[in-house]
Amino acid sequence: GAGVSQSPRYKVAKRGQDVALRCDPISGHVSLFWYQQALGQGPEFLTYFQNEAQLDKSGLPSDRFFAERPEGSVSTLKIQRTQQEDSAVYLCASSLLRRGTGGPRQFFGPGTRLTVL
Amino acid sequence: KQEVTQIPAALSVPEGENLVLNCSFTDSAIYNLQWFRQDPGKGLTSLLLIQSSQREQTSGRLNASLDKSSGRSTLYIAASQPGDSATYLCAVRTGANNLFFGTGTRLTVIP
Predict the structure, then answer these.
(1) Residue A71 phi, psi (nearest 5)
(2) Could you tell me which chain B residue has the CA closest to the CA of A10?
(3) Rounded to an integer, what distance in angstroms lies between the CA atom of residue B41 and that of residue A103?
(4) Contact state of A55 with B36 under an 8 Å Cβ cutoff
(5) Which one, of B61, B46, B53, lies nearest residue B15 by Cα?
(6) Chain B partners of A6 at a C-beta cutoff of 8 Å?
(7) What are the φ and ψ backbone dihedral angles of A86, each rounded to 5 degrees?
(8) Along the 117 residues of chain A, how does pLDDT read in single tens digits?
(9) Using the beta-carbon criterion (under 8 Å), do B102 and A107 form an inter-chain contact?
(10) Which among B34, B96, B97 has the least Cβ separation from residue A105?
(11) Chain A, 59-98: which have a CB under 8 Å from a chain B CB?
(12) Cβ contacts (< 8 Å) between A55 and chain B: which residues?
């Protein structure tokens, strides 16, 4: 079956350019997450959506980072005025919603590797 | 803030050996713990998920244990194969919905 897809897979930007990264979650998955993975590090949380609502954006490193999910399915992560320190792999994950303790499995996309020159 | 540590950072073993990867976390108030596999240039593949009320999970040659009170988890891989070569990440979910990841263990299985 179709998993989480992301595009583009690779993006090279000049410092100061704006970029937009796309995530298509698994159909029917209510929750959507963005993570940033620097080279040699584990992924770090950026932001979380439940349907179209952005419930947590505490991990966004600066106001240059903006995410949206207007119809509760596809999500876009936008980075304005890119800097060299933004170079990383950006991972998207989706999951079903299960309330209470425990938690559903998160399924990850292949990521977008962003290089800022 | 939850801190997740994985040791060793890298491990190289001959094919057929059994091995253990370690993960520790500082805040024991977790909802669940997941072990992932990451191949170079690829995303994350979920291997096992252990809910906070569980002690272990098994899938094929993989067995993961969880000791929440001591903040530790282990991933046991039996009869390792070259195809097991990858980076293994553990991640915990706390009260927030997101996951906190360790930095991973890079495993190489030598034929």
Answers:
(1) -115, 10
(2) B41
(3) 27
(4) no
(5) B61
(6) 43
(7) -80, -10
(8) 589 999 999 999 999 999 999 999 999 999 999 999 999 899 999 999 999 999 999 999 999 999 999 999 999 999 999 999 999 999 999 998 765 555 678 899 999 999 999
(9) no
(10) B34
(11) 59, 91, 93
(12) 97
Q: For residue A35, what are its two tokens?
A: 């993570």
* Secondary structure of residue A89 in the 3-state scheme: strand
Q: Is A57 part of the contact surface with chain B (CB cutoff 8 Å)?
A: no
Nearest Cα residue to A90 out of A43, A15, A36, A47: A36
CA distance A89 to A72: 23
DSSP letters for B62-110: EEEEEETTTTEEEEEE-S--GGG-EEEEEEEE-SSSSEEE---EEEEEE
| Cβ atoms within 10 Å, residue A30 | 15
């159909």: which residue's tokens? Answer: A27
- The CA distance from A108 to the nearest CA of chain B, in Å, is 6
**What is the number of CB-based contacts under 8 A between chain A and chain B?**
72
Cβ-contact B28, B69 below 8 angstroms: yes
8 A C-beta contact, residue B9 and residue B22: no
Nearest-neighbour CA in chain A from B102: distance (Å): 6
Q: Rounded to an integer, what distance in angstroms lies between the CA atom of residue B101 and that of residue A7?
A: 23
